[in-house]
Amino acid sequence: MCLLLNLLFAIFNDRFFFQSFYYFAIIEDLILRWSWALGFYLTENKYVNGEVMQSVLAPLEVFRYATVVFPLFLTQASLSCHISAV
């Protein structure tokens, strides 16, 4: 398990990959935040049912959260493998 975590950490720790991932997360966050505003507008003006809009936007929010948390989890897990190996 630690070998896999160390491999993933090495990939994510690559400067070019991390920079592109970081900019992807910024753009994704911007798009999803505007989509929530658009969803609010559409549901308040009765263009779309609120439950339908929530079922579309909620998985996107989970994906956004995962793109932020996964690199942090990977760093912590890799560090715990190094500490337990010592």
What does this 3D model show about the protein?
- With 86 residues, the protein is an all-alpha fold.
- The protein has one domain.
- The protein is built from three helices and no strands.
- The radius of gyration is 18 Å and the shape is elongated.
- 1% of the residues are buried.
- The model has no long low-confidence stretch (mean pLDDT 75).
Low-confidence stretches: none
Ends distance: 16 Å
**What's the gyration radius in Å?**
18 Å
Structural class: mainly alpha
Write out key terms for the chains shown:
86 residues
Sum this structure up briefly:
By secondary structure, this protein is mainly alpha-helical. The chain has helices spanning 2-13, 15-44, 50-85. It is built from three helices and no strands.
Tell me the layout of helices and strands.
Elements: H1 2-13, H2 15-44, H3 50-85
Helix pairs in contact: 1-3, 2-3
